[in-house]
Every structure is written in structure tokens, then in C-alpha cells.
Amino acid sequence: NATDAESEEAKEAQKSMMHEAQIMSFYTHEHVIQFHGIACDRPPVLVVMEFCAGGDLLSHLVKHGKKTDEREKMIYLFEGSRGMIFLHLKKCVHRDLAARNCLISSTGRIKIADFGLSKLIDEGENDGDGATAASSSNAGTCQVDGSGDAQEAACVLSSIGR
User: Fold this and answer.
1) Which residue ranges does the record assign to the Protein kinase domain (predicted)?
2) Based on the structure, what is the number of domains in the chain?
3) What does the pLDDT look like over 44-62, one tens digit per residue?
């Protein structure tokens, strides 16, 4: 039945959104998107977070790529790295780091966003799937221990360096 399938799909989407909101709610850092709340009193469920007027880094680089000077690119890398270091110190593995998931605030700061694939890791924890998690762009390379985030950071570096 199409209605049952749609209902199940809506439940899964809501569960995923709640997971993402929960993870975001744990962190306050200048280079991680700030979670403000969730509106779930009626559909659709809405996650309320910090507004980043500059949009995503990928779109910014596509639009301004050749005009972006080396100093600005280095700042993007530094700020994104600071956000990722913070997350890893807090035992959060992002698992989908990409320029499209780095937002630019109204003051020009890079903010790590999109925690939909993120996982919280306790010491010695194994997630039960062979310790791997596939992101859409890096299927099979993203490790639960955070090494996949490092590989994805290299992809962001490549995007910025163009």
C-alpha cells in the first residue's frame, strides 16, 4: 500500500532528523553549526539552527573560485579543521565531511554542518557493521574511528585548492 510506505518513509525521515538534532545539541563551538531547537508539534518536523548567510562552501568556491585568494582558502581550511578537531575530541565522527557541508556564517566563519550520518563513539566501541560507514561520496572508506573524516578532509582540501 502506497500510504503505508509513505508513512514508514516519513517515520524514518523524522527518526533521522531527530538523530541529527540530538547530535547537534551536544556541541557548542565557533566552527560547528549551532543547534537552537526542534519544532515537532505538527508535521513537518523542523530543525532550527544557526543561519549561515554565506551559504555552503562548495557553492561559494564554484561562484568565486578563481577570485578566492590563498589567504582566504587557508582560513577556510584552518577553521574547518578546528571544527573537526573539536568534534573528534568529543568522540563524534562526522562521516560526511565535504565542502557542501561546511557553511559560511554572516561573519565569514566556517561552520561544520549536516550531522545526518554522524556517530558518537565511546572508547572501544564497534558499531557492529565491521567498523565502516559509507558516505555517498566515499563508499567504503569512512572508518568509525575518524580516519574517514581525515580522508574526507583531504577531499575538502582538494576542493578549496582548485
Assistant:
1) 1-162
2) 1
3) 888 899 999 999 999 999 9
